[in-house]
Amino acid sequence: MENHRHHHPATGTGTGTDEFAMAELLDLDAEVLHSYLSEVTAWIQQLAAGLPPRRILDLGCGTGTGALALLQRFEQADVVALDISAQLLHRLTGKARDLGVADRVRTVQADLDGAWPAIGTVDLAWASSSLHHMADPGRVLTGVFAALRPGGLLAVIEMDSFPRFLPDDLGIGRPGLEARCHAALADRHADEMPHLGSDWGPPLSQAGFTIEAERPFVIDLAPPLPAPAGRYARATLGRIRSSLDGRISTDDLATLDTLLDSDGPDSILQRRDLTVRTARTAWLARRR
Ligand SMILES: C[S@@+](CC[C@H](N)C(=O)[O-])C[C@H]1O[C@@H](n2cnc3c(N)ncnc32)[C@H](O)[C@@H]1O
To answer: In 13, 210, 273, 280, which residue has its Cα 20 to 30 A from 200's Cα atom?
Structure first.
């Protein structure tokens, strides 16, 4: 593994428990939304028709959701999986080993807010829910453009919103809890992560890309859902929880904590009425 940088205070990476929770969340996201993921990679395959990629780059790969799905889709390809977090890359390496594809994965630890890492030329790049973490996404897109071979593709995926799971009336607390949590979170994100939910079309064009396609993916899973959906809901709301102190009422915080308590009778893990509702937008852009 190349070792460009270890710690990045601004993204909060490098803190063990936080990263462990993030890793769990990313893995559950991949597991619960696997059919969406398969749709996206099939869509890319269609647009890459005739020239399947051999070298793929996953930017801000996390635990490897995109990297591993793309390796499955493109059986002739290798992937460079790049992230700032050594811990997430380590987890990715273990998963690749379990899947028998370790020899097709190279992990690179690098901070994309710094100098562009030496990864060579690639045929396909993928950035899912990662550009919004960058201080200057335009600069990163210029780097990707230069790293792609002429004719190569970049897929960018952005969350329109965090997933929602709960009915309006939970039977405990005041109805509308999840909506209030999301509204409070949106305020915080507007301050701290201004690129979250961006329209990446204009920045892609500005970096020199030609946009081949833009497509919404709407996810709406209805009950009964398998057990990982409950754990995904708990991991998502648990991550949100830490941002909500002082932003929602103490009554709402207490209800949220009741849901998050995995052993309690009102735990979210016990609910049979969970849904998974979220939307993502994908752009497929080409370096001509
Ligand atoms: C929301 S996660 C998405 C992970 C993965 N792409 C997925 O779809 O599951 C964002 C990822 O971007 C990484 N990241 C954040 N800032 C970064 C930076 N400056 N350089 C490289 N990676 C970064 C984080 O460590 C994290 O793994």
So the answer is: 13
